[in-house]
């Protein structure tokens, strides 16, 4: 059993390493198995094809991403919940940067992650619209961070995300000049 788990881990690591070098569409199963140091038949024990590998990896990474939210709910200080959760999320995205660089180009992935995050945020807001707004904003912020090639450190990104997420937007006023906001 340990050998099987290791082979699967080698496959995933190989894909993530290859994503640092090229796009998913240009990666072949042959390259994945060569990088992983396994046979093609071992690859096919776990995955139907490279798309199945990416789909399963996406599910696992999204679940890992979402797991930070129930942990935050168990903390006693609301400020620490936000601080720790945003740090964990930014570190997570940074650690899987090759995956996120590839997947955040995919509108279906963005939508799936945002919808699942929205469901996880229902315990925070107890309101579907607020949870949806927050989830799409969070994913949008993280996508911009990725698109900007991680110009900020994970710690800096977490601080920015936390500031945005805890801003009292009702305190902002807009000047109405010449019929424009």
UniProtKB/TrEMBL annotation:
Gene3D superfamilies: Tetracycline Repressor, domain 2. It comes from Cytobacillus kochii. It holds the Pfam family TetR_N. GO terms for molecular function: DNA binding. InterPro entries: Homeodomain-like_sf, HTH-type_Tx_Regulator, HTH_TetR, TetR_C_Firmicutes. PANTHER family: ACREF/ENVCD OPERON REPRESSOR-RELATED (PTHR43479), TETR-FAMILY TRANSCRIPTIONAL REGULATOR (PTHR43479:SF7). Keywords: DNA-binding, Repressor. This is HTH tetR-type domain-containing protein. Residues 28-47 bind DNA. Residues 5-65 form the HTH tetR-type domain.
């Amino acid at each position: 059993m340990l050998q099987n788990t290791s082979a699967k881990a080698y496959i995933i690591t190989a894909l993530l390493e290859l994503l640092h070098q090229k796009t998913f569409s240009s990666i072949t199963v042959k390259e994945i198995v060569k990088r992983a140091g396994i046979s093609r038949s071992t690859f096919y024990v776990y995955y139907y094809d490279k798309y199945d590998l990416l789909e399963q990896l996406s599910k696992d990474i999204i679940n890992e991403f979402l797991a930070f939210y129930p942990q935050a709910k168990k903390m006693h200080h609301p400020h620490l919940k936000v601080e720790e959760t945003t740090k964990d999320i930014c570190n997570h995205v940074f650690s899987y940067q090759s995956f996120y660089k590839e997947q955040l180009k995919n509108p279906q992935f963005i939508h799936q992650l945002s919808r699942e995050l929205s469901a996880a945020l229902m315990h925070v807001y107890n309101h579907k619209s607020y949870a949806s707004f927050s989830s799409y904003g969070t994913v949008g912020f993280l996508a911009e961070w990725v698109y900007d090639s991680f110009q900020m450190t994970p710690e800096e990104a977490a601080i920015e995300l936390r500031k945005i997420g805890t801003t009292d937007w009702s305190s902002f006023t807009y000047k109405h000049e010449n019929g424009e906001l």
